[in-house]
Amino acid sequence: MLLLDPSWFDSLGPVCSPSESTGPRSPDEQRMLRRKISNRESARRCRVRKRRRFEELRTESDRLMSLNRDLANRAGSMSHRCLLFRHENRRLRLESASLGRRLSELRQLILLRRVLTAARGGLIHEQALASLMT
């Protein structure tokens, strides 16, 4: 059983009887009471608005963080694909240069074969000689 110090009750202040709390009040007291009630209700509405706004901001923050993660993932994927395309383009350019050199060599061989064929037959054409010069 808990024992309380009697002086503790004195610190609570005067206790109003039910008839005093609901009895007639002066107009100033009534106005102050209405004002107090209005202020409390206004503060309650303000807290509700703040809570609602906080939740809206939290939801928006979560949405933006998720969007940011998605965009970062997409950017990483695009960066990787870009690197693959650069390697493929470099390989294709090297292959194109190699094939261009090979084509040039084959054209020279064809031209040389024509010239040699014409020379063996005793028909050296001016056109064949001119093509050797270019």
Automatic annotation (TrEMBL):
Record's keyword annotation contains DNA-binding: yes
InterPro entries hit by this protein: bZIP
Listed Basic and acidic residues bias regions: 26-44
Span list, region Disordered: 14-44
Highest taxon listed in the record's lineage: Eukaryota
Entry coiled-coil feature ranges: none
PROSITE patterns: BZIP (PS50217), BZIP_BASIC (PS00036)
UniProt entry keywords in alphabetical sequence: DNA-binding, Nucleus, Transcription, Transcription regulation
Short name of any one Pfam family annotated for the protein: bZIP_1
Gene Ontology annotations for the cellular component aspect, listed alphabetically: nucleus
Domain BZIP: 29-92
Protein name, UniProt field: BZIP domain-containing protein
GO biological process: positive regulation of DNA-templated transcription
Single annotated GO MF: DNA-binding transcription factor activity
